[in-house]
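Slide 14.
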Amino acid sequence: MKPLDSIKLAVFDFDSTLMDGETIDSLALDFGVGEQVSEITHRAMSGELDFFESLSVRVGLLEGMSEARAKEICENLPLMNGAQECVSALKRQGTKVVCFSGGFRLATAHFAKILGLDADFSNILHAKNGVLTGKVGGEMMFGSSKGDMLLRLQSLLGITRAQTLVVGDGANDLSMFAHADFRAAFCAKPALKKEANIIIETKDLREVWLNLMRKSSTRF
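Slide 15: predicted structure.
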């Protein structure tokens, strides 16, 4: 069966995949702790640090930030080139399109509406009296979280790994790569490229769709 006929579920990472950049780095830069956080982010996405521990440390550095300011930043992040077109094309094929993010619901819920995603799974920045406490919780706290959630969705929807496309860029996407036959590494870290069978080096998500089109020998 051609790839575009067989794919029933597409799961995208958010930071540096659907969105051009890292949400937590944008928050940290605004709050004056950008250099500290970006270094930890880079090491975590390269697989050098435990994801849970690195996330906890980075969010801890945001303690005291205004929740309203965090929301404003999250809702004005730049989408990746081709994000809307790629998602729309998949949905026209009848594919369920979902976002998994080790980032934050303040961003993913907003852009899920803009992109027309079927669901988003991410983490929640805890706030008290309108101020971030430096604590975080949610569905994507661990390195294994994306893989666990993908297995749940596949079971719920009756979709197999042969019908699943995953797209990501960092080491915390490895767990979902383990459960999909279509694995796209998007401008990705070396650790993820090793497990991919689709490698995109151009920052344009339309390349994911076009790659599938070529595999299907179908006109775009």
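Speaker note: The beta strands are 9-13, 96-104, 119-128, 131-138, 164-168, 182-186, 198-200.
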